[in-house]
Specification:
- The chain is α/β, with parallel strands linked by helices and 246 residues long.
- It folds into two domains: 75 residues, no CATH class; 154 residues, no CATH class.
- The chain contains eight helices and eight strands, in the order βαβαβαββααβαβαβα.
- Strands 1, 2, 3, 4, 5, 6, 7 and 8 form an eight-stranded mixed β-sheet that branches.
- Helix 6 runs parallel beside helix 7.
Length: 246
């Protein structure tokens, strides 16, 4: 495993990633994609239920801290554990999270808690030194918005606010670093957000898309790419979206 830089796992059984990879060394790994297959009664998780999540990561999966790309598809993970995981992956540049509603159906669910967790408030944008956000190196974010309305689902505008806040913070950070280094060259850092929107008819999709674009405004419109996906054909959404994960 000494020279392995990318690892993709596709699972159809109940297990924990930490149990499978415990004792293995991945000193060069930068890319990890874990995908649980729907329709196989799968309950695949990062850590065994009941174990201290952060301790499991640090002991059994220490390579998470060096990842630059992480894709989790239908992996069973709570909002709290996902936040804990992302606090450890400080070098992450590309993140894709598609949480499954149920292992036996092909739909995904929104990540309302994750949207809130990654959104940077105005105080954080203004003071990049004292208020570093989660995933300060994040360049590409891929999420999913369901047509189903529930308390766990984010409003369309929340995605626009997230994309704008991340880009604004990165620009501010670049400007601050340039001033500290007496460098007048300010290059806007890359940031893109890809959002797959489930839809039943075109009008619903267009309404969601407009809500996001209104929140972003014309200045930030290029930051977020909204694509439509039909219910019942979502299992390959990661592959079909053509996200430039490296």
């Amino acid at each position: 495993m000494k020279y392995l830089t990318r690892l993709s796992l596709e699972v159809q059984f109940k297990a924990a990633l930490s149990t499978i990879l415990r004792g293995l060394d991945f000193p060069a790994i930068k890319f990890l994609h874990v995908r649980a297959i729907a329709g196989h009664h799968t309950a695949f998780s990062i850590a065994p239920e009941g174990r201290p999540f952060t301790e499991v990561i640090q002991h059994d999966l220490p390579f998470f801290t060096q990842l630059k790309t992480l894709c989790l598809t239908r992996v069973n993970i709570s909002d709290e554990d996902l936040r804990s995981l992302l606090r450890l992956t400080t070098w992450l540049q590309h993140l894709c999270v598609l949480k499954g509603v149920d292992a036996n159906i092909s739909w995904f669910e929104d990540c309302r808690d994750l949207v809130s967790f990654l959104t940077i408030d105005k105080a954080g944008i203004k003071n990049v030194v004292d208020f570093p956000p989660p995933l300060p190196h994040l360049q590409t974010l891929k999420l999913y918005h369901s047509r189903v309305s529930s308390p766990n689902h984010s409003s369309p505008a929340a995605y626009g606010n997230l994309a704008r806040s991340r880009f604004s913070w990165m620009v501010r950070q670049t400007e601050t670093n340039s001033q500290l280094q007496n460098d007048n060259r300010v290059n806007s850092p890359p940031f893109e957000m890809h959002l797959s929107v489930e839809w039943e008819n075109r009008d619903v999709y267009e309404c969601i898309k407009r809500s996001i674009e209104d929140e972003l405004g014309s200045t930030y419109a290029s930051l977020l790419r909204v694509k439509v996906c039909r219910a019942g054909s979502l299992e390959n959404v990661v592959e079909t979206e053509d996200v430039p994960f490296k």
